[in-house]
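Milestone 3.1: sequence recovery, worked example.
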């Protein structure tokens, strides 16, 4: 949240803007967007990008987002040659990357437009252009106060309209790097700060949306050279956020620190030398007292991720050496939760300066044309770029030795999609192909969804030489002539965090594991079925719901869901009543821990008490020395030890789990659901209710609540034949009718 903003109903209300106007009242020149100084460019001026057009260097009034006080910003404004269209020239506001950290960077007499080709292109498309280049507030160089930068961008449009006639109130914005962060915040602030203007869309390219991750990297000594130099440039933070600079600069870097913030003058040639000298060891933070002010300043500079005023398109790259793509992904997740129309593209092999903003012109043109923008939030698309593509593959000889002779096995990292946001992810898993000659059309596939193994990155099956006891099951499938895919799920064995019991994400991981299997081994059919247990039972259920639209190139025949954790909101109710079973107590602890990693606003101390509080980390352990402590703790823990403190804390977890509950949509193919009446982990009533809802959606389901059956003790003898009949095209039994 931006400092100085009131919060009402969860939304930031920028009352400070009214304060800013009140502060500036009485002097027309102090109104946001009013011009303090202007220097018109002649046709012969090298800075005039288009012959016959009009341009000017401007100083104009804007607002400090943190204090509400009036401040001066600088920029350049342009209008195309010719006659303006009816309603005036539409406006593109461009937020440039910061050229330096000094208040004179750039000066209003900057020698050239940056980037000049961009301005030329915008003008040639018939847009008036406002370029915001100066920012008086910055938490770190390259990491500006994005809210203040966003307000400066908005006011550059007002300055453009004051400088030239026939300029429309309709505008869009594009920004790169720190300018991208400014554009992002301009989108969240425009509807309140500038009701006189109509923002139609915004594009943020490689945005420095949240750089707090720099602190953790500095502490671990894993900064890239570009990041190390960035952290070294903290002089600019000294005035606003008092920091002890001596904890952040050492040796040769310290001796040349003045060159690190320069944007011109005699020190300019030293910049390259300083960049080469800067390294992770130059910025190690020795004390918490030194770390926290830096973290706070970076948090204050981050985008607010509030409700959007207009559609936002974000483009960022996997190879950015300044902004870790995971940091941007996290902000996108928060923005999706805040609401609005948001789309994004993670470009493989692209760095910070490689993103091609020219391709976003068509997207902007569509916004001016009134065409609706698509949102990636809470959707998944068959066009998810690279979904199922294999990032890396390696043999697993210890696993292969337990399989039928001649079988093929590989551990893979593959691309998938996060269910809540549609964001691209990388997931680990294991894939297998039978020995012998494949049948016509290739080996049919069974994707297996495993049950709960934990919530940490070392809990994936693919890292175990026995697949955590699942190698025998895989061997059985292979002997029956099925290729097999075995996903770990997002965050287990690959990049995290793991969204425990998010069946939608796990279902997409299952589907993409089949694509990864087909990309790894030859002669694999497009026809596939799925079988899963517990967490995996919900995963294959969700895969059934999504397969028809997410992977239409594959032929899904059906799913077997064993004791599926399809809808577990009831576990919160039982926790409130202190009636959790011994199986449900550690499960609820895993749920709360996983949710807190996804939603940091959750306070774990509201859910852990007594023995649970003492051994919380051990309860979530899936490997290592904590396993002994885990067993001892579980022998002592009681339901009251994990009960929510308040009704608000209970409702928060209940609502988050309800978003993941199945069913969510009609299934693509028939299902067989098997569960036990004596299940002590997933209450039978929860599964029965989910089945009733799925039947009401028109699903074809054969289900069996086995009397006396438990979570792990079910009679499975009919399930593989059920799948075999689906591959054979036999009509599926249906208990829903």
């Amino acid at each position: 949240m931006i400092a100085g903003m009131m919060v009402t109903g969860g939304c930031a209300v920028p009352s400070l803007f009214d304060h800013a106007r009140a502060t500036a009242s009485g002097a027309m020149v102090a109104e946001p967007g009013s011009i303090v100084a202007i220097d018109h460019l002649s046709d012969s001026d090298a800075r005039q990008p288009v012959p016959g057009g009009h341009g000017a260097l401007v100083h104009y009034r804007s607002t400090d987002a943190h204090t509400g006080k009036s401040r001066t910003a600088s920029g350049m404004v342009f209008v195309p040659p010719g006659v303006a269209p009816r309603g005036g020239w539409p406006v593109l506001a461009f937020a440039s990357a910061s050229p330096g950290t000094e208040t004179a960077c750039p000066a209003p007499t900057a020698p050239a437009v940056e980037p000049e080709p961009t301005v030329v292109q915008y003008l040639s498309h018939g847009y008036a252009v406002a370029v915001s280049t100066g920012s008086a507030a910055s938490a770190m160089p390259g990491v500006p106060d994005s809210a203040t930068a966003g307000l400066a961008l908005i006011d550059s449009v007002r300055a453009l309209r004051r400088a030239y006639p026939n300029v429309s109130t309709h505008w869009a914005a594009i920004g790169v790097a720190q300018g991208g962060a400014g554009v992002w915040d301009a989108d969240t602030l425009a509807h309140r700060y500038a009701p006189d203007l109509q923002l139609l869309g915004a594009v943020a390219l490689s945005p420095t949306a949240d750089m707090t991750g720099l602190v953790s990297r500095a502490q671990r000594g894993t900064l890239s050279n570009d990041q190390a130099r960035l952290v070294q440039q903290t002089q600019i933070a000294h005035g606003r956020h008092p920091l002890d600079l001596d904890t952040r600069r050492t040796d040769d870097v310290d001796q040349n620190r003045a060159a690190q913030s320069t944007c011109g003058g005699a020190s300019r040639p030293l910049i390259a030398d300083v960049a080469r000298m800067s390294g992770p060891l130059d910025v190690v933070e020795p004390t918490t007292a030194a770390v926290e002010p830096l973290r706070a300043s970076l948090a204050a500079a981050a985008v607010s991720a509030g409700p959007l005023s207009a559609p936002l398109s974000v483009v960022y790259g996997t190879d950015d050496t300044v902004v870790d793509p995971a940091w941007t992904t996290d902000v996108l997740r928060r923005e999706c939760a805040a609401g609005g129309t948001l789309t994004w593209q993670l470009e493989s092999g692209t760095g910070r300066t490689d993103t091609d903003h020219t391709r976003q012109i068509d997207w902007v043109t569509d916004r001016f044309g009134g065409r609706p923008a698509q949102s990636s939030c809470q959707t998944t698309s068959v066009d998810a770029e690279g979904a199922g593509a294999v990032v890396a593959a390696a043999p697993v000889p210890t696993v292969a030795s337990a399989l039928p002779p001649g079988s093929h096995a590989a551990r893979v990292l593959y691309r998938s999609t996060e269910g809540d946001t549609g964001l691209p992810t990388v997931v680990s898993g294991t894939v297998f192909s039978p020995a012998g000659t494949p049948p016509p059309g290739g080996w049919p596939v069974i994707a297996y969804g495993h049950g709960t193994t934990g919530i940490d990155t070392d809990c994936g099956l693919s890292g175990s030489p026995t697949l955590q006891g699942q190698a025998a099951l895989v061997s059985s499938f292979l002997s029956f002539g099925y290729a097999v895919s075995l996903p770990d799920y997002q965050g287990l064995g690959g990049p995290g965090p793991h969204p425990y019991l998010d069946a939608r994400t796990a279902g997409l991981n299952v589907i993409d594991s089949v694509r990864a299997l087909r990309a790894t081994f030859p002669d694999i059919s497009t026809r596939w079925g799925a079988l899963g247990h517990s967490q995996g039972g919900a995963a294959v259920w969700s895969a059934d719901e999504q397969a028809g639209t997410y992977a239409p190139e594959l032929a899904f025949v059906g799913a077997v869901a064993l004791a599926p954790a399809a809808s577990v909101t009831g576990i919160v109710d039982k926790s409130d009543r202190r009636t959790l079973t011994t199986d449900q107590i550690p499960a609820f602890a895993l749920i709360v821990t996983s949710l807190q990693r996804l939603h940091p606003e959750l306070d774990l101390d509201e859910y852990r008490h007594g023995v649970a509080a003492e051994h919380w980390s051990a309860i979530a352990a899936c490997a290592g020395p904590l396993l002994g402590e885990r067993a001892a703790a579980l022998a002592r823990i009681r339901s009251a030890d994990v009960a929510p403190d308040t009704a608000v804390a209970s409702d928060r977890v209940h609502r988050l789990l309800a978003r993941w509950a199945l069913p969510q949509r009609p299934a693509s193919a028939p299902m067989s659901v098997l569960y036990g009446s004596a299940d002590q982990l997933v209450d039978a009533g929860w599964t029965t209710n989910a089945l009733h809802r799925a039947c009401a959606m028109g699903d074809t389901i054969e289900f069996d609540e086995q009397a006396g059956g438990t979570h792990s003790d079910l009679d499975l003898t009919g399930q593989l034949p059920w799948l075999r009949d689906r591959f054979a095209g036999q009509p599926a039994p249906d208990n829903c009718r």
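The longest helix spans residues 146-163. The mean pLDDT is 81.
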